[in-house]
Amino acid sequence: MTRFVIDAPTLLHLVAEGVRVAPQHQLVAPNVLRSQALALLFEEVRSGRLAEREAMERHEALTQVKVRLLGDRVSRRVAWQIAADRYLDSTIDAEYLAVTRLQADAYVTVDPVARARAEGVVPLGTVVQLTS
Q1: Number of H helices, E strands in the chain
Q2: What would the mean pLDDT of 13-31 be, rounded to a whole number?
Q3: Burial 86-124 (b: 16+ CB within 10 A, else e)
Q4: CA–centroid distance for 92 within its chain
Q5: Burial tier of 76 (Cβ tally within 10 Å: 0-12, 13-18, 19+)
Q6: CA-wise closest residue to 66 among 125, 25, 118
Q7: In this predicted structure, what is the pLDDT of residue 124?
Q8: pLDDT tens for residues 46-90?
């Protein structure tokens, strides 16, 4: 089994594109994943890029994606250290990197900024790897 950390943009991408994660893989993420995904959907609706009905359908679909959510004391401490070492403005983005470092084989994100932030910190994967 390969464990992949995914972030909120990637979770929404999986749902919007109907991407199915191969059964031999496990998805993990920090506890903030679903709240961030909901916030992104709300932002899409508020900006007029997505109808509320579609956002609610995607929200329902994302709750069906099996993701193990983590947020123990050790991962929070590692997130703090990563954020400090990388001069990040927040520990939230570092939580994904901490969970990857502690609990996963690679971090998968469709967000180019998040991918650049993770470069050299944790192993990176791709959405294609999730399906094979």
Answers
A1: 7, 4
A2: 97
A3: eeeeebebbbbbbbbbbbbbbbbbbeeebeebbeebbeb
A4: 11
A5: middle
A6: 25
A7: 98
A8: 999 999 999 999 999 999 999 999 999 999 999 999 999 999 999
Cα separations in angstroms, 92 against 24, 43, 66, 87, 114 = 28, 18, 21, 13, 11
Check residue 30 and give its pLDDT: 98
Amino acid 122 reads V
Given the structure tokens 């909901």, which residue do they identify? 38
Instruction: Give residue for tokens 């250290």.
Output: 81
Q: How far apart are CA 59 and CA 75, in angstroms?
A: 26
Q: At 24, is the secondary structure helix, strand, or coil?
A: coil
Computed from CA positions of residues 38, 18, 111, 2, in that sequence, does the dihedral angle turn out positive or negative? positive
Q: What is the pTM of this model?
A: 0.95
